[in-house]
Amino acid sequence: MTKQHTEVDKRRTFAIISHPDAGKTTITEQLLLFGGAIRQAGTVKGKKTGNFAKSDWMEIEKQRGISVTSSVMQFDYDGKRVNILDTPGHEDFSEDTYRTLMAVDAAVMVVDSAKGIEAQTKKLFKVCRMRGIPIFTFMNKLDRDGREPLDLLSELEEVLEIDSYPMNWPIGMGKGLEGLYDMYHNRVELYHPEKYGSEERFISLNEDGEIPAEHPLHQDSIYSQVLEDVELLQEAGNEFSEELVMAGELTPVFFGSALTNFGVQTFLETFLQFAPKPSSHKTKEGELVSPYEEEFSGFIFKIQANMNPAHRDRIAFLRVCSGTFERGMDVHLARTGKKMKLSNSTQFMADSRATVQEAVAGDIIGLYDTGNYQIGDTLFGGNFNVSYEDLPQFTPELFMKVTAKNVMKQKSFHKGMEQLVQEGAIQLYKTYHTEDYIIGAVGQLQFEVFQHRMLNEYNSEVIMTPMGSKTARWIDPEQLDEKMSSSRNILVKDRYDQPLFLFENNFAMRWFADKYPDVELKAKL
Ligand code: G4P
């Protein structure tokens, strides 16, 4: 096996998806602690302790004012090189959050066990499902009183329409949490082993799948409830199938508590056992490029702008799909055919350790960008001449009318609009006839970045008038009749001149669907 082959096989690249507050940051920190990438909890968020992981990334961040530290986190564990890609939520939610999911080979879904499946989890899950990547579930906050585990599993199956397989099962919860009945490893993991007079966290189950009779937990009514649940699951639940997990049709479910670091290591180890190696990627022509292919190639899935007015640069994040990326190598930009020399100052990787000079399939590299790159761009080495398929378009939910503040500066306004739209920072729509500009985004942050960049990079002050959230649906141009437009929707065209309606709300959309039953209303992802 070549060195490249061995290196590729070590990579495990995934994103953690969740609704804000479910515990994504907390579990990420625990994973980084296990991987030795940080030494203290609170590091990722930073604000808690003020201590940061010492790395090049921080230096870059200080110098450039770009927050890249947590965009990609890399560590080694059990002989694997793990890349965790951040999927920003809250006010940082943007199309980049979705696009990050295009660059991973698996996803970990963190669910708050008291709240169940929440809105943002659902949205991100949908994208993972569309890609058919394996999804692993971590039911978090077991140290608090939450919903019944069976209830959580059925919600998962009903709301997300994915089959589930519990890898372990909680023995109690909240104050009554005693441990995890780990059917996958045939053991019980104790929450506070000291209560039973031992340091030993794990108790092996006997051949009947039982805790030894002499163990105090054996008499506990909670434990007999667990046995009943497990029996029910064995009879009525799904069977474990690695094949279905790999196809993203069955999600292995782990219970635990990120905050008290309970069940996290078991999760990490089991996850790494199943998590897929870097996958092949499809070109525009529909051919698959193997991660073991020798020539270097990769695609840009995210462009992060510098919000520091002193620096206009951006960072383009590239997922390596094949070959070996070496510092200072020459590459071609597929869209333009332009040759680019990636000097040392234009790249950095998640891991700053001096030994890491190379990246292979599965790794993410950051490229300083002065305006050369767009979302979805392919870079390749040598004469490989490959171009990866376009990233999907996402349905925006928030809209703003936008105009230039200074009518004398129309030229810079239009230039900025065009470039930011092309780059993938924002989506642009125009009304019919009046050609008013409407921009669309999936999160508020996109508007703020847009406004900031228009001013700083294009010297164009924009006025944005919020239109609130709308339900956007595309229709077949052949079916378009401008009379369909009413006071409850706005007819616009996208940058490819495709018509769509922005409905005031779902009621307005249903009313339209009833009135024009033959017109198919299509959402993007
Ligand atoms: P997020 O990145 O998904 O938004 O969530 P984050 O990890 O920041 O966690 C959100 C809140 O939930 C935090 O508390 C965190 O301490 C808590 N939390 C995470 N995992 C667990 C868990 O397993 N059990 C319990 N009981 N709490 C958990 P906070 O008070 O909102 O924030 P902070 O002030 O502690 O940062």
Describe it.
By secondary structure, the chain is an alpha+beta fold. β7 and β8 form a beta hairpin. The radius of gyration is 25 Å and the shape is globular. About 6% of the residues have low confidence. Bound molecules: guanosine-5',3'-tetraphosphate (G4P). Guanosine-5',3'-tetraphosphate (G4P) binds next to α2.
Number of helices: 12
Number of domain modules: 3
In terms of DSSP E residues, the strand content is 25-35%
Strand neighbour order, sheet with most strands: 2-3-1-4-5-11-6
The proportion of residues forming helix, as a percent range, comes to 10-25%
Reported by name, the CATH topology of the largest domain is Rossmann fold
Termini, distance in Å?
39 Å
Rg over CA atoms, rounded to whole Å, is: 25 Å
Q: Oligomeric state of the chains?
A: single chain
Pfam families: EF-G_D2, GTP_EFTU, RF3_C
Organism: Vagococcus humatus
GO cellular component, one term: cytosol
GO molecular function: GTP binding; GTPase activity; translation release factor activity, codon nonspecific; translation release factor activity, codon specific
